[in-house]
Amino acid sequence: HVQLVESGGGSVQAGGSLSIFCAASGYTDKTLCMGWFRQAPGKEREGVAAIDSDGSTSYADSVKGRFTISPDKSLQMDNLKPSDTAMYYCAAAAGREIPAAQILSAKAYDAWGQGTQVTVS
């Protein structure tokens, strides 16, 4: 089964940039949808960005124009805001495509990393 390990989180001042990474292993199928989610204390987990096996990307409105997900599964975050502070998780769905309408839904994914903290002050 797919195993995911995030890295690269940390603290940054508002307006700064940060990249976070997701190392994926344990899959052989080329069909792999990847997503980044975040969860702040007391809030529900929300989808931030996703990329399907064809390289098509999707973003939450709150991060459009600031965040970029790459085929290597990394998430580049620019012009960070204090509201971006959260634990960030990468997620994967192997062997199937996720419909575009569900690609930012946590329920569509079946493999999760342990998370990496991003703090913006």
How does this structure look, described?
It is a single chain. The chain is mostly beta strands and 121 residues long. Helices cover 0% and strands 45% of the residues. It contains no helices and 11 strands. It has strands at 3-7, 10-12, 18-25, 32-39, 46-51, 57-59, 67-69, 75-77, 86-94, 111-112, 116-120. Strands 2, 4, 5, 6, 9, 10 and 11 form a 7-stranded mixed sheet that branches. Strands 1-3-8-7 form a 4-stranded antiparallel sheet, with no helix packed on it.
Defining key terms:
0% helix, 7-stranded mixed β-sheet, 121 residues, mainly beta
Mean pLDDT, to the nearest integer, reads 93
Order of helices and strands: EEEEEEEEEEE
| Outline | globular
Strand elements, count: 11
Distance between the termini: 37 Å
Task: Briefly note the structural class of the backbone.
Answer: mainly beta
Which percent range fits the helix content? under 10%
Rg value: 13 Å
Indicate the low-confidence ranges by residue numbers. Answer: none
In percent, how much strand structure appears in the residues? over 45%
Largest sheet: 7 strands, mixed
Topology:
Elements: E1 3-7, E2 10-12, E3 18-25, E4 32-39, E5 46-51, E6 57-59, E7 67-69, E8 75-77, E9 86-94, E10 111-112, E11 116-120
Parallel strand pairs: 2-11
Antiparallel strand pairs: 1-3, 3-8, 4-5, 4-9, 5-6, 7-8, 9-10, 9-11
Task: Describe, in short, the structure shown.
With 121 residues, the chain is an all-beta fold. Helices cover 0% and strands 45% of the residues. The protein is built from no helices and eleven strands.
